[in-house]
Amino acid sequence: MTIREQLEHDEHLRLSEKAQFSDATLGRPRPEAATENDVRTCYQRDSDRILHSKSFRRLMHKTQVFLQPEGDHYRTRMTHTLEVARVARTITRALRLNEDLSEAIAFGHDLGHTPFGHAGEVALTEVTGKPFRHNEQSLRVVDFLEKDGQGLNLTYEVRMGILGHSRSGPLPATLEGQIVRISDQIAYINHDIDDAMRAGILTDADIPREIADILGDTHRDRINTLVTDLIFHTAETKILGMTEPIAAAMEALRSFMFERVYKNPVAKGEEAKARDILKRLYEYYIAHPQALPADFQPQLDFDGMERTVCDYIAGMTDKYAMYKYDELFIPTAWQVRG
Description:
Layout: H1 3-14, H2 42-51, H3 54-58, H4 77-94, H5 99-108, H6 118-128, H7 134-145, H8 156-163, H9 175-198, H10 209-215, H11 219-237, H12 244-262, H13 265-268, H14 271-287, H15 297-303, H16 305-314, H17 318-329
Helix pairs in contact: 2-5, 4-5, 4-9, 4-11, 5-8, 5-9, 6-14, 7-8, 8-9, 9-11, 9-12, 10-12, 14-16, 14-17, 15-16
């Protein structure tokens, strides 16, 4: 018995019957022969493939909420992703579900996010005339764009978990995927409060008292309340979810954040500029497709110009988008030689 086979066997001994077992995967888009000396389950391999991908590394330079914040401690897409993964693993471990699957989904869920956060989504929606949804783009990244068009060839369960992590996507079939969907909301609502307080937009006293009385007064208390309530309520009812008061308080907190932070002119004051940057870049590359990088040129033949340009811009980091904008539209300094 190989190490992989032993790990798969152990899953059946320690995990709940509701878990998604590694040896029961629906497989990959392209079948791969299992090697005899493999020491990882299929979901562990998927986590590693995502973690070592170029698109994962770019998350460290992509906006979460605040564009170009002054300070080193604001969240990025990378830190958000890691926080989601930890919340999801805590929940899946407590419920005896497959931690490796939840981790892989969490690692990949935001790979398709544009530069400048949701402002980038708005910009690409406007210029293409089609809704740009980051969950769909995340699936596109792992299926087609990574590894020079080969994709990462991930398992069905990870791919569908990535697609279904947001409210606009289909509900994942696995409990692990559904947990990542909830963990994403738990993580971003709470760490965005933390960042908003760091930016001076919120104070502890601004959180409505009726919410704080239920969820807690601190970042740690809120996370602990939401996660433990989800775990114990699910274990008791055998249905994934929170108790009604906690779920209602979380939804009220989400609504509060949309009104006070996500639509706040301080947090969003630069978004018009960010959208303009991406629109100008899109228009330029549509008019000059030959200026696209060499590794995007073959894509023009089978995906067309609009799709290829959209993929290129969506994959940019904030810094790279601004660099390309400067390069293309800002006059460079020149010197008269005497």
